[in-house]
Amino acid sequence: MSKRSKTDLWMPVYIGDYLADTMRLSTIQHGAYFLLMMEYWRQGPLPDDADELSSIARADRKVWDKSIWPVLKRYFHKENDGLLHQKRADAERAFADEKRSKRIDAANARWRKETSNRDANAYANASRLDEQSSMQTSCKDDPTCASRPRASPSPSPSSLRSENTLTSFVTPAAPSSHAVAEVAPDLLGPGNVVPLAPDARTVLFRQGLDALVSMTGKTQPAARRLMGKWLKATKDNAQLLSAILFECSQARPIEAIPWIEGAIRNRTGSKLDAMARDWRLDEIDLDAAAEEDCRRQGI
User: Can you give the CATH number for the domain in which 20 is found?
Assistant: First the structure.
């Protein structure tokens, strides 16, 4: 008997066809036949055994032999596998299996695409953060590096959404000496140094905190506690947490906190553990996901 997923929660019943085929059945025979068909839908062809059939139909064996099975047996036929088949039920089960497989394939394809895009965005954000961090480190002992040209990050499309939405988690570049001279030329004396750009942790708590408050509705103290908890989980990797928060601001999940914590677990665990979590499809309601995907696409 094949194991079926989710389809055991429903069964197609064509009322007109059913009544046309069963007009001469008694009330007891109707009930027994319907119980047999529900078992058929969930488990497949029925066993050719009177004890099992009467048990499925919740009928006394003597009543089954005398007044139920002699009438119902005309709806079934025995095939080479030794089981009792019903032509219409076999066709409906095959159709349901094919439809479900297509929906699962569509949901899996979409899931893989979203995962690929998310990983690509995370890599790009982490690369920009690494570049900025390296620049800050090299400038600590060389104040004149502030005068060197620096590439400014391109604004993210999400910057048009809200003032409180994360636009980018790259550390802002320090102003050039030329720009500072235009604003305050008297401050560029021998004893003055152009201030360096803030580090990744500072950027996280400046931009990331406001964005987290906006995404979750938490107060600033509560958001700070979450930030501290997540930094501990990432082993104080502010760049990684910045990248995850940035992705969350773009993905806009309904529940931001579980989304962020799931991303942290995936990024901080071992590669095999992450793959096992990512591909544990038996814990995902693929039917519901596929139906939602098809509904969105108007299929």
Answer: 1.10.10
Based on the domain organization, do 73 and 101 belong to the same domain? no
Kindly list the distances between the CA atom of residue 41 and the CA atoms of 50, 80, 88, in Å, as whole numbers in the listed order.
19, 20, 11
Residue 5 lies in a domain: no
Where a domain ends, among 32, 55, 85?
A: 85
Flag whether pLDDT at 176 surpasses 70: no
pTM: 0.36
How many whole angstroms separate alpha carbon 70 and alpha carbon 140?
93
Helix 209-216 to helix 256-268 angle (10° resolution) is 130
Q: Which two tokens stand for residue 220?
A: 């600033």
pLDDT at 193 over 70: no
Question: Over the stretch 98-145, which tens digit does the pLDDT of each residue have?
Answer: 887 777 877 787 777 777 777 667 767 666 666 666 666 665 555 555
Segment 87-100, tens digit of pLDDT: 988 988 888 888 87
Q: Which residues contact 73 (CB under 8 A, 6 or more apart)?
A: none
177 and 260 together in one domain: yes
pLDDT at 127: 66
Greatest mean pLDDT among 62-76, 100-114, 125-139, 216-230: 62-76
Residues 208, 62, single domain; the answer is: no
Q: Are residues 162 and 219 in the same domain?
A: yes
DSSP-assigned letters across all residues of 49-99? -HHHHHHHTT--HHHIIIIIHHHHGGG-EE-TTSEEE-HHHHHHHHHHHHH
Indicate the residue type of 5: S
Residue 186 lies in domain: 94-297
Question: How many structural domains are present in the chain?
Answer: 2
- In DSSP terms, 77 is beta-bridged to 85
- Cα separation of 216 and 230, whole Å? 15
- Contact between 63 and 37 under an 8 Å Cβ cutoff? The reply is no
Q: For tokens 């994360």, what's the residue?
A: 166
